Amino acid sequence: MFIDFEGIDGSGKTTLSNLLASRLKRLGYKVAHAREGGELQSPTARRIRDLTRDARLLEMGSRAEFFLNLARDAQQLEEVIAPALKRGDVCITDRYLYSQLALTGGGRGLKEAQLLPSCELASQGLWPDLVILVDVDPDLARLRKRLGKVQSGKVNDADSRKGLVGAGLAVRVREAFLAQARKDPSRWIILENNDQPLRVLEQRLVDAVVARLEGREQPVQRLVPAPAPPPPGVASVDDVEERFFHAVDALDAREPQLAAWLLNGIPGLAAHQRRLTYAERLPGLVARSLTGLDDDTAWTLRDVLSASVPVDVAEGLGFVTSPRSHAVRQRLYAQAPEAVLEGLKRQDSPEAWALRERGMKDGHLSAVLLGLAGVDGEESWVVREAGMQRKLYSEVARSLGGLTTERAEALREALIPHDRLAVLKSTTGLETPVAVGLREQLEKGALKLVLRSLTGVDTPRAWAMRERGAQLTKEALDSVDGMDSPSAWKLRASAARRWPATVVSSMRGLPLVAETRALLDRILEEQAGKLPVLRNAYAVVAQARALEQTQRPVRSVVETVGMDAGRQEA
């Protein structure tokens, strides 16, 4: 039997396909997995995949990408799949030609009828007996994928070509997969992976596959685990705190790492109470969840966690620049020099420069450059010159973030041939000639970065680009974070149904005035069951309330839980 797993990035198909392979082997079946452990088993196919992911190849057209992906699948078929089936093995794949139809047809917009003949040629008439579509809310998949990068230490890895298009690509690809499943229900099983423990999904999957292997057809083609019931009533701003923490507590039983990650940047007593329960189990995620927080409990937790996860503590400081942050960075430097140095963005204080000078002496030039964004003193230009001499072009480009001087623009121009994406990132919030030119040049191939570079820009050109982008991807809404103009509210209202979670997050930092509450209430009522929407809504509300209230509720959490640094370290 030939079994194929399909689904968007972050859906869990790789994990589930490998779990199925292991279970079937234990049941006595001979199994070959063409992507065992997440790696394509054909070396040639791996090299082709690297080519299609290379973000430097932005000019690669959709048809060229399609034929390269077909070549990858054809090689896997000849080298791995066909021989396994000939031996009589159960052969499992993680993606097959259906992915190319979904990506190029649904995602890139080419007509499926034009693509099918080439897929038939690549398949040699060999198509899966069973296709398992692991279906998931794209916003949730993106959260899981981001969490996975954090846990694997790949959070700073560059985007792939596909990733540069923006999150809207996953939405379109998912819709294409679902359309394929509807056309061929006898071949496809849809396994929903939104709100159930992995062990439950694994067992349902094994039961369905074994039934097929034994010739027992199962009439139900959509495997939908029952979600935990939400609190009664209609979701609104007034009860968003209760609903969010109810969801987090339910999530803890099946995905504790994700539950801890959802607390990232959220202030207040309730969030801190839960961080304390995770501090021993998931210290790194707790440290990172403190990003941007500057209250007493946040500092207590950082003190507790510094010894065990210094890198995470350093990266969880965010842009906090209080005297306490300087002391913590000084203390963490010996264990986490690069994270400390990269966290000095927009800081031109003597304390920051003392750390940079130390970092230069210790050979951490790249990290010093990455932490120079927003700094324009003469000392910073000496460091940039050293970076140019060392050919650290990407790092030098990113060190220019937020700078609008002629000197910065001239250096951007010089860096474009070396790393235009890094230069584009450095123009976030700017409307300089280099910024405008790069956005026009890269809008098609790197729409995600182009739109995010518009954050805070309030010009007719920027709004026209956002309106075009909002039809395709959610990053158009990322670029209006915290903006309170009529144009921003108009864009939010028009995109609320298409990109609800991002529309909500774009209101973070705004006061809870009537306009904010009305849009939040509308989205919460329409999307109450979606965890990413609920999380972003509570982040907006919590931050607005934190700005209005004293720090007394936050300080009291230490007294409430009774934790002290010495006991936690022990």
TrEMBL record:
GO molecular function, one term: dTMP kinase activity
Record's keyword annotation contains Hydrolase: no
Enzymatic reactions: dTMP + ATP = dTDP + ADP
SUPFAM superfamilies in the record: P-loop containing nucleoside triphosphate hydrolases (SSF52540)
GO biological process, one term: dTDP biosynthetic process
NCBIfam families according to UniProt: DTMP_kinase
Similarity field: Belongs to the thymidylate kinase family.
Described function: Phosphorylation of dTMP to form dTDP in both de novo and salvage pathways of dTTP synthesis.
PANTHER family assigned to the protein according to its UniProt record, in alphabetical order: THYMIDYLATE KINASE, UMP-CMP KINASE 2, MITOCHONDRIAL
This protein's name: Thymidylate kinase
Species of origin: Corallococcus carmarthensis
Lineage: Bacteria, Pseudomonadati, Myxococcota, Myxococcia, Myxococcales
